C-alpha cells in the first residue's frame, strides 16, 4: 500500500515538473505582439470583434481540397468533420480546388456560415496553369524581367479564371546545388538577379490592383534557407553562416516584401537548429518586425507537424503553440491549429493578441482581394471558358521559351542549321514527347499538351527521319510517384545507329524527364539519365556531326559532350511551346540569347559550385606543390560558368570606363558591339569585387545587367550606376554597411572577367 502511495506521489511530482517545464519553456517562447489598434479596416476590425475564438482559429486553418464540390456530399467519410468545419465558418482557406464551378460551390458553403467570411483558394501556380511557360529556372535564363512578369501575369489570369485567387509562388530560394530537385522552381544561384526576378514575378501575379478578377495574391517561399539543404537532398538539414543568411538567402524575400507580396510560406527545414515553422527570429523579428511585412505567413504542407520529427516540438499541441507564437499565421495540413490552438489560448500558452494578429492579417488579404465585396468574383464560368487556354498565352509562352534557351557550345558555327539541310536524323525519346517538356510543378495542366520537338520541326517544314534510340522512363509519369528510368533497354539502339550512319547531321534530344526534378526529386548524379549517354557515344562513333539538344530541370554534367559534340543547345523544360521554340532556334528563326543562372559543373563532385565564391587563403594555382585549394582529379573551374550563353551573333566589349567622382553614384560603362552579320540580343553583365571587408566579400558579384538588341555592326554604350545598395553588404549582425576601400569592376557577357577596372570609396564621403 505504502509502495503504491509512494509511486503515485512520484508520478504526481514528475507530471508537475513536466508541466512546469513546458509552462516555463512556453513563457520564454511568448512573443511580443505589436499593439496597433488602427491597423485594420473597419470591416476587418468589426469581424475581429464578432468572431469567436473557434472561428478565429478556423481562419488560421487551411485544408487540402477535401470536398469534391460537384456532389452534395463529401466524397470520403473521413472528410465529414472538415466539411462541418467549413459550414460552421471554421476554415480560412483551401488548396488544390480549382475550376470556377467547384470553387463557387465551396465558397457558397463558406459564405453561408454565421459570419459569411469567404475562403481564399490557394494553388501552386508556378509556371502557368493550363498554358505553361518554361520552368522558372529556364525563364530566369532569359534575364528578361518584362517577359517574366508577363508570364506570371498570364498564369494569374488563367488561374484566376479557374477560381484561384492565391498562388504559392514565387519560390525565391537561392540554391547552389544542382542535386536539389527544386532548383527548377527558382531563379538560380544569384541573389542580385534573384531579387529582380522575384519582384517581377510578384508584380506579374498581383498586378497593380489585387482586387481585379484577373490578379491573384502571391507567396514568397520558403522562408528560409530551404535551397541550402545539405547534400542537395530535399527536406534535409540547413546549416548556414550568418553572412550567407543575410547576404544570399534573405534578400529575395525582402525584395518580395518591397513588391508588396501578400503572403510568405515558411519552410520544412531546420535552419541552424531551429525549425523554420517555429522560428520566431525569422518570422517575428525579421519578416514582420524589421521588414514590416503586413501580409500573412502560411506554413508549408505539414511543416508544423514535422517539427515533432525534427525534435523541435513534443507533440501536436506543442506544434500549435510554437508555430502560432513564432508568427506562422495559417496552418497548411498539420491540423495543429484546428485541434489544439483553442485550448492553447485557454491555457494561456498563446495570447489572444497573437490570434487576433494572425486573423487580422488573413482577413486583410481577403479584403484586398475584394472577396468581401464579391466572394464569387473568381467564379465566372463564362470567363473561364473565354480565358483558359487563350491563344495569346501560347504566343507569350513561345516568346519567353525562345529567350530561355541557352546555347552552350557552337564550334565552327555548327548552328543554326539551314532549312535546306538534307538527310537529318532526329534521335531521342524526348524529341517525341508531349508531356515531359512541360516540366515539374504543373498542377492544373494536362499531360500531352506540349508541342513536341518533332511537331516543331514539322511546323517549320523540315524533312527528317526519327528514331527513339533509348527509352527514358518505363512507368507513367505522375506528380507524386518515382520516375523509373530505364537503365538497360538498348533494344532501339541499332535502329538509331543505322539512321545516324545514313544521315548528314544528327539532332539528338536527350536529358531528364520532366518529373526527374521538382519536389522530392534530388539526384546524386547529374549525367544524362539511363542509357542516353551510352547512346550518344555510340551514335558519335558512326556520325560525329551531332547537334545535341539537352532538356533538364537542373544543370547537368556534360563534360563528355563538351569535349566531343560540336553544338550543344540547353533547353531546360520550356513548357507548352517547347517544340516550336527549339525548332525555330535550331534553324535560325530564333537567335538564342539566354545565359545560365546556375553554374554547370564538370563533375558532380564539384557541387555545390557557384560563381560568387570567396577567394580562400590559398587560391593558387601552384604548379609544384599540392598545398592550395583544389582537387587532385578535377579542375576548380566549372564547365560553363554563371552568365554563360552564346548567340548566333558575336559581341565584343571595349572601352570600360569608371567615373567615381560622384561617390554616391559611381558610373560604369562599356561599349558593346555586334561584330557579326546577324542581329541579336546580348545580356550585358556588371560584376564588382569589394577587395577587403570586415566580413570577406566574394571574388565577383553581379550588380547590374541589361539585355540589349544590336543590329549587325551596331555598337551601344551600356551604362550602369553603382549606389550604396550595390556596394554594401550585411555584416554578421545583419547590419547593412558600405565600407571604404578599393573595388574592382568589370562588364562582360558572362561572369568570366575581362578588362577589370578599379575605383576607391573614400570613408568621409559615404554613409555607413
Ligand atoms: C509543399 C511545397 O514545399 C510547397 O512549395 C507547396 O506550395 C505546398 N506543398 C503546397 O502544394
Provide an overview of this structure:
With 768 residues, the chain is α/β, with parallel strands linked by helices. Helices cover 31% and strands 16% of the residues. The strands form 7 sheets. The chain has a 6-stranded mixed beta sheet, with helices on one face. Strand 17 (651-659) and strand 18 form a beta hairpin. Helix 8 (191-206) packs parallel to helix 10. The longest helix is centred in the N-terminal third of the chain and has 28 residues, at 2-29. The chain starts with a helix and ends in a 7-residue tail after the last strand. The model is unreliable at 7-20, 69-75 and 764-768 (pLDDT under 50). 1-deoxynojirimycin binds at residues 95, 124, 168, 221, 300-301, 519.
CATH superfamily of the domain at 399-606: Glycoside hydrolase family 3 C-terminal domain
Bound molecules: 1-deoxynojirimycin
pLDDT under 50 segments (min length 5)? 7-20, 69-75, 764-768
Query: How many beta strands in the DSSP annotation?
Result: 25
If helices are DSSP runs of H or I spanning 4 or more residues, what is the number of helices? 23
In the CATH hierarchy, what is the class of the domain at 399-606?
Alpha Beta
The CATH architecture classification of the domain at 399-606 is: 3-Layer(aba) Sandwich
- Alpha carbon gyration radius: 28 Å
The percentage of residues in β strands lies in 15-25%
Helix content: 25-40%
Q: Could you give the distance between the termini?
A: 74 Å
Label the overall shape: globular
Oligomeric state of the chains in view: single chain
